[in-house]
Amino acid sequence: MIWFRWSQFYFHIPIILRLLLSVSFFMILFGYLIHLVEPTHFESVFDGIWWAIVTGSTVGYGDYVPLSFLGKAIAILLILTGGGLLTFYMVTLSATSIQHEEKLSNGQISFKGKNHIIIVGWNERTKQLITFLQADHRAHPVVLIDKSLLNLPYQKHMLHFIHDDPTRDACLDKANIKDASIVLITADPNKNESEADRQTILTALAVRGLNNEVPIVTELLTNEQKENAKRAGATTIIRSNDFMSNLFFQELRQIEGIGSFDIYIQLLKQMELSFVPAEKEISYFLQQTFHQKEGRFLLGVIREEKILFDAKLIKSIKKKDTLILMKPKKQAPLSI
């Protein structure tokens, strides 16, 4: 009965641990045997184990050598059994490490960490966002969920990738949704606007069903789905089309000189965005629209879930507004 229970335990543990236990058992066994056979030469069991490991791994320092016929016979048996077992262990360990990294890159490994950021959707926006997050050493680990992406090399991007449908509970469990600090759901650029918004809302519903507390930031392409997104549990709704429409509008309003759209594009490419409550900085940015403080420029404000770039409106900053500030990246001067 004891042997049966031990065999059940042994064959249910990972193969790496099984091999390690087997190698350890044989090294201790041969070390003890050689100590019994030649106690004057191998004065302690540890000396015997040391000799067994050095011999079995084919290193062969030569500091301990069996002298008797029986000792040499034990050495031959060790070389024929323990040596092959050690080699097999090292090969298996290497293969397992490679397979684990391949599974990470293919999105097949569950995430075990906590306080992480879950981003749904792989596109140019998320690429830039992940770059910003990784540059910020205070940021939390990032877990990316995407169904269309087949492979994302772990060593290149240094984030945890999960290849699955984010509307499935099993997928969100793999991303450890219960311990996430925030979830960002981006719109799928491969779908039409209405279909992309419906997918976003379904994902928000699935997330909220498994975690009732986590903040959910959603990107919507149409205004019609705003109320549905709120009912689905979205904490923050970003309408990216409104942002671009404002930029185009400002460009059309320019009669001469450099268009504001050109300026914004340069800023977006060469500067870092930050969002600060107006209450903290209101005294610095009330005088003029694009006032500068400590290398930061005021680009616009977010007011009642709307992004404002109009200079007249920005001049009347309110305490409840959120300032959109931009700071030049190092060694990236603004060229217009």
TrEMBL record:
Pfam families: Ion_trans_2, TrkA_N. It is found in: Cell membrane. The chain crosses the membrane at residues 15-37, 49-67, 74-95. GO terms for cellular component: plasma membrane. GO terms for biological process: monoatomic ion transmembrane transport; potassium ion transport. Residues 114-239 form the RCK N-terminal domain. Its main location: membrane. Keywords: Ion channel, Ion transport, Membrane, Transmembrane, Transmembrane helix, Transport. It is a multi-pass membrane protein. PANTHER family: POTASSIUM CHANNEL PROTEIN 2-RELATED-RELATED (PTHR43833), POTASSIUM CHANNEL PROTEIN YUGO-RELATED (PTHR43833:SF9). This is Voltage-gated potassium channel. It comes from Saliterribacillus persicus. The lineage of its organism: Bacteria, Bacillati, Bacillota, Bacilli, Bacillales.
